Amino acid sequence: MLTSLLLTAGFALMGAGIGAGIVAIGAGLGIGRIGGQAMEGIARQPEAAGKIQTAMLIIAALIEVVSLFAVVVCLLIALNDNLTF
């Protein structure tokens, strides 16, 4: 019984850590892609630089918010002391 509980808690911690890592990698790749595509768009149409940059910053902020929520969920799973599965 005790080993089953410890094993379940270990899996929950491991899953939370892996989940937080995947979220960080995904957010980094997404924001990097947005930045690269925005720079390419600005290079092709310099007169639209203001609109492109504004859209890029808004989308990057939305990605950051979603990734922050996901990391908070992972931390809540990791910090939950009384796992009841």
TrEMBL record:
Residue ranges spanning the membrane: these are 6-34, 55-79
Q: Where in the cell is it found?
A: Cell membrane; Membrane
Q: CDD domains per the record?
A: ATP-synt_Fo_c
Spell out the InterPro entries in the cross-references. ATP_synth_csu_bac/chlpt, ATP_synth_F0_csu, ATP_synth_F0_csu_DDCD_BS, ATP_synth_F0_csu_sf, ATPase_proteolipid_c-like_dom, F/V-ATP_Csub_sf
| Residue ranges of every copy of the V-ATPase proteolipid subunit C-like domain listed in the record | 14-77
Q: Name one Pfam family in it.
A: ATP-synt_C
Coarsely, its chief localization is membrane
**Keyword vocabulary terms for this entry:** ATP synthesis, Cell membrane, CF(0), Hydrogen ion transport, Ion transport, Lipid-binding, Membrane, Transmembrane, Transmembrane helix, Transport
Membrane topology term reads: Multi-pass membrane protein
Residues at the site labelled Reversibly protonated during proton transport = 64
Q: Known PANTHER family for this protein?
A: ATP SYNTHASE LIPID-BINDING PROTEIN, MITOCHONDRIAL (PTHR10031), ATPASE PROTEIN 9 (PTHR10031:SF0)
Return the similarity comment: Belongs to the ATPase C chain family.
According to its UniProt entry, what is the function of this protein?
Key component of the F(0) channel; it plays a direct role in translocation across the membrane. A homomeric c-ring of between 10-14 subunits forms the central stalk rotor element with the F(1) delta and epsilon subunits. F(1)F(0) ATP synthase produces ATP from ADP in the presence of a proton or sodium gradient. F-type ATPases consist of two structural domains, F(1) containing the extramembraneous catalytic core and F(0) containing the membrane proton channel, linked together by a central stalk and a peripheral stalk. During catalysis, ATP synthesis in the catalytic domain of F(1) is coupled via a rotary mechanism of the central stalk subunits to proton translocation.
Name recorded for this polypeptide: ATP synthase subunit c
Please spell out the taxonomic lineage of the organism that makes this protein: Bacteria, Pseudomonadati, Bacteroidota, Cytophagia, Cytophagales
